[in-house]
């Protein structure tokens, strides 16, 4: 960090660099913490080294992580911000992640996790490119957060985002193949105790099953088949006011269809949201049924 003389910045100067992903350190008048965008938390080792070098050259030498899986270079003087951003650009890195727009996408490690039901890395990178990058100049009523979770464990809390995607594995019971075993392996392996043998047949309550797929391959007689897919929740929010996202009434089986739903949700928020309200407020004001209809209708 350069030995720049501390000076008082104008409100316009602070606002301008905030739009570039630079958040003022409240302890100083002209020092900022600069957010470096990642692809859902994934960066290469070369990018890691570049960020570390940038923190040494232009900041305090410290790098922190944000809840949106971006990295933040600490202690950058206002006069060094341009040079820092130019240095990062040389490695294909950019700053940002603030403002009333689509925010950096977060995902869990479902692609590699033993419980993951979908390719969270692949889907979240597509969302990143199409909506965080592609919609960069689209002004929204407020920020719009998207999270991709690989399974109902919900490690990245998709249903507390404006739009959340959750991997699903939906079971279907073939009663003719079910033998009503006294020690039903499906029942024994259900982590939330929804699967039950009733009248000598296994029953999985569709209104209680969370579609985690943990019972797959447990039935010795192949009485249960499975379909993988995506649940989409809308209107979640975390912060001073919280709201639990509500799932759309359909489990999607096509990732491209999910991408279209994301786009429809963002455009609906842009067109029908009021300035300053979160998507949860828009959904409540317009009515969940209305919003769901707009998203599901072609």
What does this structure look like?
- By secondary structure, the chain is of the alpha+beta class.
- The protein contains 8 helices and 11 strands.
- The strands form 3 sheets. A 5-stranded mixed β-sheet has the order 5-6-7-10-11. A 4-stranded antiparallel β-sheet has the order 1-2-4-3.
- A hairpin with a 2-residue loop joins strand 8 and strand 9.
- Helix 4 packs parallel to helix 6, helix 6 crosses helix 8 and helix 7 crosses helix 8.
- The radius of gyration is 23 Å and the shape is elongated.
- 40% of the residues are buried.
- The mean pLDDT is 96.
Descriptive terms for the model:
298 residues, alpha+beta, five-stranded mixed sheet, four-stranded antiparallel sheet, 19% strand, elongated
- In what order do the strands lie side by side in the largest sheet? 5-6-7-10-11
User: Outline, from the CA principal axes?
Assistant: elongated
Average pLDDT level: 96
% residues in beta strands: 15-25%
Please bin the fraction of helical residues: 25-40%
* Strand and helix order: HEEHEEHEHEEHEEEEHHH
N→C terminal distance: 53 Å
Gyration radius, in Å: 23 Å
**How many E strands?**
11
* Tally of individual helices: 8
Low confidence ranges: none
- Classify the oligomer: single chain
Q: Characterize the main sheet.
A: 5 strands, mixed
Structural category: alpha+beta
What is shown here, in short?
With 298 residues, the protein is an alpha+beta fold. Helix content is 29%, strand content 19%.
């Amino acid at each position: 960090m350069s030995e720049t003389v501390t000076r008082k910045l104008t409100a316009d100067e602070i606002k301008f660099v905030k739009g570039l992903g630079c958040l003022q350190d409240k302890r100083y008048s002209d020092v900022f913490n600069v957010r470096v965008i990642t692809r859902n938390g994934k960066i290469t080792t070369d990018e890691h080294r570049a960020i570390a070098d940038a923190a040494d050259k232009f900041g305090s030498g410290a790098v922190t992580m944000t809840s949106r899986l971006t990295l933040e270079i600490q202690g950058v003087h206002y006069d060094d911000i341009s040079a820092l951003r130019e240095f990062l650009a040389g490695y294909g890195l950019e700053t940002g992640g603030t403002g009333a727009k689509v925010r950096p996408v977060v995902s869990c490690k479902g692609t590699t996790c033993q419980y993951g039901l979908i390719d969270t890395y692949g889907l979240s990178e597509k969302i990143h490119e199409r909506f965080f990058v592609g919609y960069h100049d689209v002004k929204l009523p407020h920020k719009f957060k998207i999270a991709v979770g690989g399974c109902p464990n919900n490690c990245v809390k998709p249903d507390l985002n404006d739009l959340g995607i959750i991997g699903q594995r939906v079971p279907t019971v073939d009663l003719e193949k079910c033998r009503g075993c006294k020690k039903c392996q499906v029942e024994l392996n259900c982590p939330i105790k929804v699967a039950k043998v009733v009248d000598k047949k296994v029953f999985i309550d569709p209104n209680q099953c969370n579609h985690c797929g943990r019972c797959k391959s447990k039935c010795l007689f192949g009485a249960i088949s499975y379909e993988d897919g995506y649940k989409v929740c809308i209107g979640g929010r975390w912060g001073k006011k919280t709201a639990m996202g509500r799932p759309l009434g359909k489990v999607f089986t096509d990732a491209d269809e999910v991408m279209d739903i994301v786009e429809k949700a963002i455009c609906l928020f842009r067109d029908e949201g009021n300035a300053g309200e979160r998507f949860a407020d828009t959904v409540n004001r317009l009515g969940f049924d209305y919003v769901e209809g707009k998203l599901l209708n072609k």
